[in-house]
Design a protein that fits this description.
The chain is α/β, with parallel strands linked by helices. It is 45% helix and 17% strand. A seven-stranded parallel sheet has the order 3-2-1-4-5-6-7, with helices on both faces.
Amino acid sequence: MKRKLEGKIALVTGGTTGIGLAAAKLFHAEGATVIVTGKNPATLEQARASLRGIAEVVSSDSGDAAEIERLFTRIARQHGGLDVLFLNAGIVRHGTIATLSEADFDEVFRVNVKGPWLALKAAVPLLRRGSAVVLNASINAHLGMPGTSAYAASKAALRSFARTAASELAERAIRVNAVSPGPTDSGIVEKILSAEAAVATHRALRARIPLGRLGSTDETARVVLFLACEDSSFMTGEEVVVDGGMTRV
């Protein structure tokens, strides 16, 4: 049986941990040549070990214009083009509207919104006809969860961005879709909360999810693969929610 991404060149931004890492492994298993990016030196080294023989790991700040330009120049030189672009890189800064700093707000939008916009802008000349772009949004864009004002707004912006990009790139048969994960075992909660608070948060989230558990990074990665391959060939501008029914039931 032919693999779903046989012979394709795929880039995963923020691919050293979580959903991005799971997607990189799955893309490789389905036949793609995979490049992943990351910024944190520690997770970059861990990813180089876990992705040895699976993906090329490149240090690149997903919100920095110069580094983004260098990344796509490198891809053009080494691979000549791109077939799959998973714009996954993102950060969370937790705080109420009254307490979140302006610097944190700006950083969230630099990485989560400006970064994907710059990346797609740089990628457009490299994307081959029939390519697929997937943006990692979030169900937070549909909710009013306290403490997520900057993060939720940035993900709503990404959802809007996917629609516009889908319209602009349709004439080249390039599809652009979004995946919106719900609570997932990606480790993102542990990055922003104390261990005790993270446990309590997971407990509260599970109580709100009809399936009674958090999703796995592999489960979201399989949806990303669906959007990246020909299985979703008549879908563009769409958002696929992966949240165990949290916002749907």
